[in-house]
Amino acid sequence: MKGLLISALVFVGYVFSVALSAHLIRVERYSKLFFGMFAAWTPLYFLAYDLTPDHLWVLPAAWTGMPHRLDLWYGYAIFAMNMHNVLDFFFGVNGGFSTCLLLEILRSGARGLATGDLIARFHRPDGTDKIYAWRIPRLAETGYIRMDEQAGTCTLTPKGAVAARIAWLGKRILNLGAGG
Fold it and tell me: Helices 158-173 & 97-107, crossing angle to 10 degrees?
């Protein structure tokens, strides 16, 4: 149980340090930040485990009967899995093109954005379409945006507005800027 509790505390420190670092330095590849911070917090986990008593000043004796090595590695595995969850969330949600589309439409306000403007924002210099071809219809199909064929605009549905605000908050916490 000691390993689990220390793992939780170290994980909280890890998340705060990643967020703080994202605000202080602009990294080119966020995976380096996530793995670098994980490497920095790993020895802190083992140090904290070694320097604290088995009962952690609060645990009842019945909860401290687990073999020392098992508890140590169990806690570390939980820490590693939690770090991986943060990484998955970051790249799966915050870094996704659909999220970028929702944020662009959110920034446009109630008037929405013309689909041509959306397309222009996501073309590569060579003219290839990075995301529009399949994502806009999929966002409409799943209820995140409303497409007005006559006006040629996309607006957020209530579901899309909630998703865009959550994405905006996540990007703000990690200091990702407008493009993600």
Answer: 100
| Phi, psi angles (nearest 5°) of residue 154 | -115, 130
- Check residue 139 and give left, alpha or beta (phi > 0: left; psi -120 to 50: alpha): alpha
Distance (Å, rounded) from C-alpha 32 to C-alpha 25?
12
Is the pLDDT assigned to residue 54 strictly greater than 60? yes
**What number of residues does the chain have?**
180
**Per-residue pLDDT tens digits for 75-128:** 889 888 888 888 877 777 666 667 777 888 888 888 888 887 877 777 767 666
SS3 152: coil
The per-residue pLDDT for 144 is: 92
* Edge-to-edge strand list for the sheet holding 113-114: 113-114, 153-156, 145-148
Q: How many angstroms separate the CA atoms of 102 and 108, rounded?
A: 10
The dihedral over CA atoms of 131, 18, 31, 173, expressed in degrees to the nearest 10, equals 0
SS3 state at 123: strand
- What tokens were used for 118? 């959306």
Residue 179 has pLDDT above 60, yes or no: no
